[in-house]
Write a structure and sequence with these properties.
Helix content is 25%, strand content 25%. With 256 residues, it is of the alpha/beta class. The protein has a 7-stranded mixed β-sheet, covered by helices on one side. The protein has a 6-stranded mixed β-sheet with strand order 8-9-10-11-14-15. Strands 12-13 form a two-stranded antiparallel sheet.
């Protein structure tokens, strides 16, 4: 009987260790708008759902594409399926723009070893598994090398021309030290720097998974001010774990 009680106790602890993160995740994501797999992003891109994350696939011309993040599937099945629908294969992926180094955004990067990989300089070590995340939940996973290698480091406001498309990188530290938002063809790709709510609002980076949520909020407010002169160019706000929002207004109204 004593052994049975001990085993039951151990089982209870294991269940609690599993249940607490699951419940915390569910509570954190409550109120988020749902993703729409294959949703058009501007005239050149799609949001590709990959488990609970997503990948932005941008047509850069000449049968090539760029990806914003790589998804959380090491085999990249969702991305490869979309490439096949276009009669393309992995070699068509010419560039990867990484919003931040959490594994659910970088696990699939190793499937595209010939692609040029862009990220903020401050994010390189996290992406390459040389540093660990610092968020309350994220730090539990420690440093993780998924095979992603940054070939080009970026600074705030830097513009990259890839094929027919210009991609502008904006530093938005907070979710991680080197989190980036990318702007291409009228679409702002936020990664986890923000989310879209069911009420059509921009919400801040998730506290449990962020290094510094307050810094992330300040970064979003600064980004809104920086982009105000280009507000008319912003057609879509894309987020890694939620549905999209239309136009610049939700970002303009953030924090108000």
């Amino acid at each position: 009987m004593r052994i049975k009680r001990i085993l039951l106790g151990i089982g209870g602890v294991v269940v609690a260790l599993v249940a607490v993160p699951v419940v915390a995740f569910a509570v954190t994501m409550a109120g988020d708008s749902p993703q729409k797999d294959g949703e058009a992003l501007g005239s050149r891109a799609k949001q590709i759902k990959d488990g609970f994350s997503s990948v932005g696939m941008i047509d850069i011309g000449d049968k090539g594409v760029a990806l914003v993040d790589c998804g959380d599937d090491k085999e990249g099945k969702a991305v490869i399926a979309e490439l096949k629908r276009r009669n393309l294969d992995e070699s068509a992926v010419k560039a990867l723009f990484i919003t931040h180094g959490h594994p659910d955004h970088t696990d699939g990067c190793a499937k595209f070893p010939k692609a040029e990989t862009y990220a903020m300089a401050a994010e390189k070590d996290l992406i390459e598994g040389k540093a660990a995340a610092k968020g309350p939940m994220a730090k539990m996973f420690g440093a993780k090398d998924v095979g992603a290698r940054v070939t080009h480091t970026l600074q705030d406001g830097e513009v990259v021309k890839i094929g027919d498309v210009e991609v502008t990188a904006f530093a938005v530290p907070g979710h991680t030290a080197g989190s980036a938002v990318y702007f291409a063809d009228g679409v702002l790709y936020f990664g986890d720097a923000a989310s879209g709510s069911k009420e059509g609002k921009v919400t801040p980076p998730k506290y449990l998974f962020s290094d510094d949520q307050k810094q992330g909020i300040a970064s979003l407010q600064a980004l809104a001010k920086k982009l105000e002169p280009r507000a008319s160019e912003v057609k879509t706000l894309e987020f890694a774990h939620t549905g999209t929002l239309s136009g610049f207004e939700p970002l303009r109204n953030f924090g108000h």
